[in-house]
Amino acid sequence: MKILLILIFTFAGLSAQVALGQDYEKNLRTCLTGKYKSLCKEHLLTDAQRVQVRNAQIAENLKTCLTGKYESLCKENNLTSLQRKQLKIARAEISKRKQSGSGLGGISRSTTLMSMGGGDKMNLTTGEYIMNMGGGDQMNLSTGEYIMSMGGGDQMNLSTGDYIMDMGGGDKMNLGTGDYIMNMGGGDMMNLSTGEYLITY
User: Fold this and answer.
1) Whether 163 contacts 176, CB under 8 Å
2) For the packed helices 47-67 and 2-32, what is the interaxial angle rounded to 10 degrees?
3) From 94's CA, which of 1, 83, 105, 153 has a CA 20 to 30 Å away?
4) Which residues are bridge partners to 190 per DSSP?
5) How far is C-alpha 194 from the geometric centre of its chain's CA atoms?
6) What is the pLDDT of residues 94-134, one digit of tens each?
7) pLDDT tens-place string over residues 146-168
8) Which residues contact 28 (CB under 8 A, 6 or more apart)?
9) Which sign does the torsion angle of CA 78, 84, 88, 94 carry?
10) Residue 175: CB atoms within 10 Å
11) Are 154 and 162 in contact (CB under 8 A)?
12) Residue 40 has pLDDT above 60, yes or no
């Protein structure tokens, strides 16, 4: 009888631990989106997880600010000086596009990428050839840099160690340099840190 009671209490304890583990995991997934701060139970997170969640919240705020769709939700006081610079460039670009109706809006620096077939591209400004290696991986044959797909749209530059996070909507953020690459539509991209405009055709 004692053994049966011990087994029952052990099973009940394990079931509670499994349920608690699932709650922790669900909470962590919610927190790591960076979108739902009020739904995130930070007291359930480890110190390392809190850092990851804070970074996700910072990235989500930057994305909200840069899109210009919900300016009232943008918390500019939480942006770094680099991010405020990126926001200023993005707002100027959005304003130019609204005034001109379309087009580049007078951007002076640009790079043109030409599709070479099979997923390969050539940078017509620098002459660099970027080869599609399959599985989302790419290699710059001119510099030797290898960009590995990490899944979910994220990439890692294996040569520099920079992690390039997919911010949604075609936008990317280089977590190593802080560069925010905004999708301008039609395959065009803009580096909001440098102001460089990447044209694809």
Assistant:
1) yes
2) 30
3) 153
4) 182, 197
5) 18
6) 676 566 554 444 444 556 777 777 888 877 777 788 888 88
7) 888 888 888 888 888 888 888 88
8) 44, 45, 49
9) negative
10) 15
11) no
12) yes
